[in-house]
Amino acid sequence: MQTLKHKTSRFKDNGIFATEYNLAVEELLEIYIDDSPYAVTMRLPGDDINLVAGFCFTEGIIASRDDLVSIKHCEAIANKRRVLVQLNHNRPNSINAYEERAEYVSKSSCGVCGKSKAEEIFTELQPVETFHSIRLGGILTLEECFEARQTIFPLTGSTHSACIFDFRENLLASAEDIGRHNAFDKVIGALILEGRPQDAFLAIVSSRLSFEMVQKAGVLGIEVLSGLSAPTSMAVSMADRLNITLIGFLRANSMSIYTHPERILNS
């Protein structure tokens, strides 16, 4: 269940009347890695496995799906509120830095909660090496696709969305969540589990473009990151350094291009 009905009162035109609203469901999810608690996040139920896979990838716990032995819900816990991750420690690209870090609590609105050291927040990434171009009209067409994929936001007004497309403008993955980081991790996780992260070219997110969102895009190797809202100064600086084209205020007929506009063709 991702929405529920709530009876309430509304004030409008100098009057109060009874009404009913749809609420986005917000529930806790526990992430266990190798049988030990690692993180707790608040999320919109659904796509939990993709969420955790994307979280592990963007946190640097795994480098590919080959680093996973298994990822599944714990059947002993009610409401599917716990996901168990078993890592393959024999893989050459296995990353074990997580073992030195204590369990932390993450919130749906924050991608850095529980991190105590700068090196835990900032990931050293190489600039994106690939280069593909896209027409302005193509981006606007993808924005229409993005809007059409939102199903929970029109009902509740309280969710974020994310979509990832390839350079041929095909939709690869889409997701919604109460948290902007969660929504992005869900679509990233979908590509990781499908073994096709290299196909990711352009992402659209409904939220502001913070440095954490740019960092997640950089981990995946996305060339173009677009948002419906504005970027922060650190996001622009990071996108410029990582060779990512950063687009804000994406609308049906307008956008602002902050970094690397050479990928965008005006035709």
Short key terms for the protein model shown above:
about 270 residues; alpha/beta; Ubiquitin-like (UB roll); Cytidine Deaminase, domain 2; 2 domains; 6-stranded mixed β-sheet; 5-stranded mixed β-sheet; 7 helices; flat
Walkthrough of the structure:
The protein has 267 residues and is an alpha/beta fold. It has two domains: 27-121, Ubiquitin-like (UB roll), CATH 3.10.20; 134-265, 3-Layer(aba) Sandwich (Cytidine Deaminase, domain 2). Helices cover 25% and strands 31% of the residues. It is built from seven helices and 15 strands. The protein has helices spanning 48-58, 118-121, 136-149, 153-156, 180-194, 211-220, 233-241, and strands spanning 3-12, 15-24, 27-33, 36-43, 68-73, 82-87, 104-105, 134-135, 160-165, 171-177, 202-205, 224-227, 245-248, 256-259, 264-265. It has a six-stranded mixed sheet, sandwiched between helices. Helix 1 (48-58) crosses helix 5 (180-194) and helix 6 (211-220) runs parallel beside helix 7. It is flat. The model has no long low-confidence stretch (mean pLDDT 91).
